[in-house]
Write a structure and sequence with these properties.
Family: Belongs to the precorrin methyltransferase family.
Number of strands: 19
GO molecular function: NAD binding; precorrin-2 dehydrogenase activity; sirohydrochlorin ferrochelatase activity; uroporphyrin-III C-methyltransferase activity
Distance between the termini: 62 Å
CATH architecture of the largest domain: 2-Layer Sandwich
Structural class: alpha/beta
Mean pLDDT: 90
Strand order of the largest sheet: 3-2-1-4-5
CATH topology of the largest domain: Methyltransferase, Cobalt-precorrin-4 Transmethylase, Domain 2
Radius of gyration: 31 Å
Pathway: Porphyrin-containing compound metabolism; siroheme biosynthesis; sirohydrochlorin from precorrin-2: step 1/1; Porphyrin-containing compound metabolism; siroheme biosynthesis; precorrin-2 from uroporphyrinogen III: step 1/1
Number of helices: 17
Low-confidence stretches: none
Keywords: Cobalamin biosynthesis, Lyase, Methyltransferase, Multifunctional enzyme, NAD, Oxidoreductase, Porphyrin biosynthesis, S-adenosyl-L-methionine, Transferase
Bound molecules: S-adenosyl-L-homocysteine
Number of domains: 4
Organism: Nereida ignava
Length: about 475
């Protein structure tokens, strides 16, 4: 980050702008939204600027800039549309101690003005450090369309209630009050009675919260984080992260997804390694239950889908035993994202009418399965935690008569930028894996080859048949 976004206090302070043409007008339209004392210094000011001066919205000095004009200004804009003049006035403003922006000159500027979505007092600033103004404009348009125009009204009225709301205890209850206001009662009141209805709706809501002295019980959401790409998170998962007081997450949950948790949430790493353990399951259960018992919203965040090799039932049992309410929020399991990545289906007519999710190892070591069934041609299985068990899996399948040419695709870091796909054959699986030296989580797809490779293989066999 070369520029750090901040909001500058400008109410009642001086902002000075030098220039009277197009560049000046563009900036002034923005600056007029502020409560600053605006001064424009311009030899030839556009009619709009003169009109604003007449309306008392800014002070116009009708001459070229002189030393001292930017004295006591918090911000200064050089907006003459003329490089030489901008350089001259910027130097003067520097000497007057103002922070300087030169329009369309990133290097000459001490600050830059972002694209702004204005729902005063809610202001969203979008910056690309000058790299992609088009992108900033697209994001702005997107947000403008998404954010209801009433947001500003709700925030303004909400602000006037802040001290009254201090009667509510800090923390959960107060947060619940505000989110009920902003996302439910507030918009509803505007819809039904317009701005005038908001005040009384807010007062009624506060009375309800003040008279209800019951402590809210904690709750546990058992949430699937998907395989890593934040775009593969469900909306339910995002909402749960938004209101979490405590997030207890596993090792495989990606950093980008952890970023999405509420800023104040306590983040606890319960990371478990393959064969060894960082925190025992019973410690994790205790942690989940004790935070919920304290009245917190707990998100137990697991990679992929929590119901797949997630030891979910033990955590649910712990919640039940402690009389804590819980809910499962499903996620996209690694197998679903992995097959999507190689353009294949998990099931396919005339190939396999069932698919197995199996684990390479369990708590006792390498896991046993119905190897005979898995060895049949056309079988498809997603093998989780299979990296270190590859030689074992390979041996068992070959022993039970699987063809050494059976395709196995290993997808590492599914859905992440580092995603890597290895196209292997059963006969050489463990050697291939050793050579590849995978470091991230990997899923093996028994019986599936990437679609393009499959195409090539089929083409070859067609040629062979034709010869
Ligand atoms: N609940 C998870 C699975 C947890 S078991 C799910 O539904 O995906 C952990 C195993 O899942 C890892 O050893 C690996 O085999 C697989 N896995 C999880 N995330 C993965 C990812 N991003 N890429 C590849 N494999 C992954």
């Amino acid at each position: 980050m070369k520029h750090f976004p901040i909001f500058v206090a400008v109410e009642g302070r001086r902002i000075v702008l030098s220039g009277g043409g197009e560049e000046a007008l563009a900036k002034l339209r923005l600056l007029l939204k502020t409560e600053a004392n605006l001064t424009v210094v311009a030899e030839n000011a556009a009619p709009e600027i003169r009109a604003w001066a007449q309306e008392g919205r800014l002070t116009l000095i009708s001459r070229a800039m002189e030393p001292g004009d930017a004295m006591c200004a918090v911000l200064f804009y050089a907006a003459n549309g003329d490089d030489a003049e901008d350089a001259r006035v910027a130097a003067l403003a520097h000497r007057d101690g103002a922070r300087v922006n030169m329009v369309d000159n990133l290097h000459g500027s001490q600050f830059i003005t972002p694209a702004i979505v204005d729902r005063d007092p809610v202001t969203i600033a979008i910056g690309t450090e000058g790299a992609a103004p088009v992108l900033a404009r697209a994001i702005k348009a997107d947000l403008e369309a998404k954010l209801p125009a009433s947001l500003g009204v709700l925030a303004r009225i909400g602000k006037s209630f802040r001290s009254a709301v201090e009667a509510l205890p800090m923390g959960r209850k107060r947060r619940d009050f505000w989110s009920e206001y902003y996302f439910n009662k507030g918009p509803q009141a505007i819809e039904e009675d317009g701005e005038n209805g908001v005040q009384s709706a807010l007062k009624n809501l506060l009375d309800t919260y003040l008279t209800d002295t019951r402590e809210k019980a904690g709750h546990v959401d058992l949430v699937g984080a998907g395989p890593g790409d934040p775009d593969l998170l469900t909306l339910k998962a995002r909402k749960a992260l938004d209101k979490a007081d405590v997030v207890i997450y596993d090792r495989l949950v990606s950093a980008e997804i952890l970023e999405l948790a509420r800023r104040e949430a306590v983040m606890i790493d319960a990371g478990k390694e393959g064969f060894g353990k960082a925190m025992s399951q019973s410690e994790i259960n205790d942690l989940i239950v004790s935070h919920a018992k304290d009245g917190h919203q707990v998100v137990r965040l697991k990679s992929g889908d929590p119901t797949v090799f997630g030891r979910l039932d033990e955590e649910i049992d712990a919640c039940d035993a402690a009389d804590v309410s819980w809910r499962i929020v499903p996620g996209i399991t690694a197998a679903s994202a992995a097959v999507a990545g190689i353009g294949q289906s998990l099931t396919k007519r005339d190939r396999n009418g069932s698919v197995r999710f199996i684990t390479g190892h369990d708590m006792k070591g390498y896991a046993d399965h119905d190897w005979r069934a898995l060895s049949r041609a056309g079988e498809v299985a997603a093998i989780y935690m299979g990296k270190r068990a590859a030689r074992f899996v390979q041996g068992r399948l070959l022993m039970h008569g699987a063809h050494p040419e059976t395709p196995i695709t290993v997808v590492e870091n599914v859905s992440r930028v580092e995603q890597r796909t290895l196209t292997c054959r059963l006969g050489t699986l463990s050697d291939d894996l050793e050579t590849a030296n995978l470091t991230g989580p990997a899923l093996m797809l028994l019986g599936l080859a990437p679609r393009a490779a499959l195409q090539v293989a089929q083409d070859i066999s067609i040629q062979e048949v034709a010869q």
